[in-house]
Amino acid sequence: xxxxxxxxxxxxxxxxxxxxxxxxxxxxxxxxxxxxxxxxxxxxxxxxxxxxxxxxxxxxxxxxxxxxxxxxxxxxxxxxxxxxxxxxxxxxxxxxxxxxxxxxxxxxxxxxxxxxxxxxxxxxxxxxxxxxxxxxxxxxxxxxxxxxxxxxxxxxxxxxxxxxxxxxxxxxxxxxxxxxxxxxxxxxxxxxxxxxxxxxxxxxxxxxxxxxxxxxxxxxxxxxxxxxxxxxxxxxxxxxxxxxxxxxxxxxx
Length: 253
What we know:
- The chain has a single domain, classed as Jelly Rolls.
- The protein has a 15-stranded mixed sheet that branches.
- The protein is built from no helices and 19 strands.
- By secondary structure, the chain is mainly β.
- The chain is globular.
- It comes from Ensifer adhaerens (Sinorhizobium morelense).
- This is Beta-glucanase (GH16 family).
């Protein structure tokens, strides 16, 4: 696992092109979910169960691991479950690879990938995303995959810069791949970041790219979650499940 804040080895800057030569990339982070190393806030675990800045969101509470954990691993697959708890409130799960003190996995540039099955239905909102470690002046965010279960023909990829004055500078693309594929099958969702471009891949095929902004030229850490849309959470199937086969990161060739 690459040390916190490290850059991908061997890459000195420039445009690496649209090709995705994964076989030529060095694996720097490999989470196969044979078991899940998670705590509420760390330290010392691979994942924490909240955003490091305590900014939970959506219509479900992100629950801690424990008796009511939303996480289950079986046969190398992680299941995140969204359901109502005994008090009638929605709970679900989020994982982040950096804790509130900045310890954990983050990498500047490289290829980041998730292989997952997504739930469908109103209210469900699974996502795979990255956040820049330096949030002192702005927050750099890359939403590799953001899926709304009531719009099952595709997903959204979004590149954000959240400024301190609450202004949001965003670029958006609708990736309508599920007209010919099923979100409830396993697919890969990936992003390759170099100093010039941010490129999005579905099943390792390029689906969108945009220029890399200065705010995204920094170590980024990984988040994945099954959230619920606040306005339509009560319409979500109870329970709903997201299945994740792996999360991986690679350096650039």
